[in-house]
Amino acid sequence: MYIDTHAHLYLEQFDEDRNEVIQSARDQGIDKIFMPNVDLSTIEAMHEVARDYPSVCFPMMGLHPCSVHQEFEKDLQEIEAYFTKQKYIAVGEIGIDLYWDKSYYQQQIEAFKIQVQWAMSRRLPIVIHSRESIDEILDILEGLALPDLQGVFHCFTGDKTQAARIRDLGFYLGIGGVVTFKNGGLDKSLSAPDLKHVILETDAPYLTPHPYRGKRNESAYIPLIAEKLAQILHVSESELGIQTTENALRLFTLATNQN
User: Fold this and answer.
1) Where are the alpha helices (DSSP H) in the chain?
2) Which domains does the chain have, with CATH numbers?
């Protein structure tokens, strides 16, 4: 059994064959799929998928850093209100993105800190987007010094030092399709001790693993990610599946309570 801890199956890329995509994932042993929100425009679609597949697809709630702009406080106010309406397994996807646009860097920092406080007050984990910003986010989290805060660095592509800092915080490394890329670099960043701090994800429809790179990603490709990661960590795929599933259920405890 596997868990895809990060997939955007509610996006329009799946509108034509969503049921088949989810069934294909289940046929490949993916028992649960966790869905991070993007912004106000994606909430309704995400909720609809969660309602249609209540024992498989579990929603999160948050504001993606690429959707943070000058008046982000208004968006955050509307998004936070959803926590009073239903349960979510995490606050996410949140963080800082310095790859696409640095214009709203300070706003991204503030939005991230606000959403971290949401997680603390609700005892939920955070799902962190950290493209070109791992050190910046680690500095923030270490500075906040919140020992009860838990979370995952989604799509981790950092180095050994960053992986160690993440482990020291008690956080997890979200490993996806990049691990299968020829020059992905994760073979140099990860080692056997990381197994207890790793969870699997696809980021579907993005970051498709080899040999399907360039095509739409799906949760059914989790075994491809697991196969490569097992090679890097020198463990069996069975052991990897068991441990990463335990890790995911431990982090996203609300998902087990809802099953």
Assistant:
1) 18-27, 43-52, 72-81, 105-122, 134-144, 160-168, 186-189, 222-233, 237-251, 253-258
2) 2-258 (3.20.20.140)
